[in-house]
Each structure stands twice: as structure tokens, then as C-alpha cells.
Amino acid sequence: MNVDAYLERIQYTGQREPTLATLQALHHQHQLTVPIENLDIHNNREIRLLPEALFDKLITQKRGGFCYELNGLFYELLNTLGFDVTRISGCTYETDKGFNPEFDHLAIVARIDGIDWLVDVAFGKRFPLYPIPLRLNQIQEDKSGCYLIAEHDADYMAIRHVNEQGDWEPGYIFTLTPRELSDFADMCRFHQTSSDSFFTRNKMCSLVTPEGRITLTDTALKVTEYGYVTETNVPDSQAFDTFLYNYFGIRLNGMPAMV
Question: Average pLDDT for residues 164-178, to the nearest whole number?
């Protein structure tokens, strides 16, 4: 792990000691610089769950990825810096389907001074800007929204957020069972190939900004600033590629940038 290259990629220049302050700063800076995106799935490029492959894509090529990639590599960084971290599996919630199978989502738990923190740089607007302590039924709020961790059943905990209708909705359920990166290989393959996966249905790229969030899909560019949303139509693939480069710095297929 080339820590210097990783930290340069996420534009982090702070302390490296494995403290809560360092974790919080790394977490937020990661969200500000590395987008959640599924573009390789729509360009028939295989996603390989190997640390060196993830490093090449996210750090060297300055791309983004989905949970297996973003949290997978962030785990490697935290582990290298001396944090006590564990990979965990989550089952994400979809309104029309319920909870997805085990290994549907990869997240991280970091233990600092005897307290466990849920760490997740790959769950978009359904996760806070900073890690959340594993304390049940404690509402936590930042400028991105309100969140809490609650007991789901005898085996699972759930992270919940307040949705756009003002209701509490689960993001995913999880246990603290330690997992290996290879444990997620089958579900990673499913999300790359199955028409039942959210990730194969539409292209998406999303990034936290100091003012809110920018999200690009096949049909719209949505810019949220201080709670106000501006949407721009995406009429075709050329417009998509132009927005992708101008807003996220990602250039696919050698397309020329248009300002």
C-alpha cells in the first residue's frame, strides 16, 4: 500500500496516527474526492476484488467505484495506518424488494479506545459524512441528514436514516462477523452481471461536495447545494461523458472534454 499516493489522491494532509480525529478526517475527505460510480459495469470492464487492482483503479487512474471497491480499499489504508479494523457484510434495503442477501454490501468497523465505529465511504446520501458509533438508538445528525443504529432482530443491527418523506428507513442491516475481501466475490459478480441488480440498470456517478452532493445518471445531472436541488437533462451519451469529465474529472473511452 502506497500510503502517500492514497493520501495525495484524497487530498489529505493531516495527521496519520490511528485516532478518532484522523478517522473522521480521512472518512470525510474520501467522500469529497472519490466518487461512488458503476461505470465499469456499463463498459463491460470486470471489477476484480484484489487490493492491487483496486489501488490502480481508484488511486492511479483516479476513478471511483462501488462499495466493494471503495470500502475494500479504504480498509487497506486504515489497516496500514494502524487502525483496528474489520470488514463486515451488510444487506441493503430496497423499498420494493426488502433486504438483499448477505454480502450485498461491504462496510467497515473500526475500534478506537474501546468503542466500535461504523465506517462507510460508499453508501451515498444514506450514510453520514463521518463514522457513526455503534450505540443503539442514538440519533446523530450532520448537514447530510439524521441517522441512528437500532436493533433489527436477534442477529442484526440496522443503520437507519430519515428519508425524503421524513420517515425513518433502514439503509442496511449488518452483524459484526469479520469477513475477508474474497467473501464478497460472488455478490460482486452478481452486481456486475445480473439484471436484478440496481447497478446494472442505470449508470451513476455521485460525489459529496462542501455544499451538498453532485449526482449524474443516464438521464439527469442533479446538483444539491445547501438543500437546493438543480437538475439538468442528460439528452445523450455524449452529454453524459461531458458532464462526467467536467464535474468528476473522469474521462472514458478517450472522449474529448467540452466545457
Answer: 94
pLDDT given at position 255? 43
Q: How far apart are CA 139 and CA 31, in angstroms?
A: 22
What are the beta bridge partners of residue 132?
118
Q: Residue 208 belongs to what domain range?
A: 202-248
Reply yes or no on whether the pLDDT at 258 is more than 50: no
Residues 110, 27: contact at Cβ < 8 Å? Answer: no
pLDDT at position 256 over 50: no
Please name the helix (run of DSSP H) or strand (run of DSSP E) that holds residue 232, with its range, or none: strand 228-233
Query: Quick one: cell of 73?
Result: 480499499
Do 228 and 213 meet the contact criterion of CB atoms below 8 Å apart? no
Same domain, 144 and 225: no
List Cα–Cα distances, 30 to 23, 136, 162, in angstroms: 10, 26, 23
Domain membership of residue 229 (yes or no) is yes
Number of separate domains in the chain: 2
CA distance 40 to 192: 9
Helix ranges (H only) for 34-175 are 39-42, 51-55, 67-80
Output the furthest CA–CA distance in the chain (Å, rounded).
54
User: CB pairs under 8 A, 24+ apart, for 161-166?
Assistant: 161/125, 161/126, 161/127
How far, in Å, CA of 72 to CA of 180, rounded? 10
pLDDT computed for residue 259 by the predictor:
37
Domain match, 169 and 149 both:
yes
DSSP 136: B
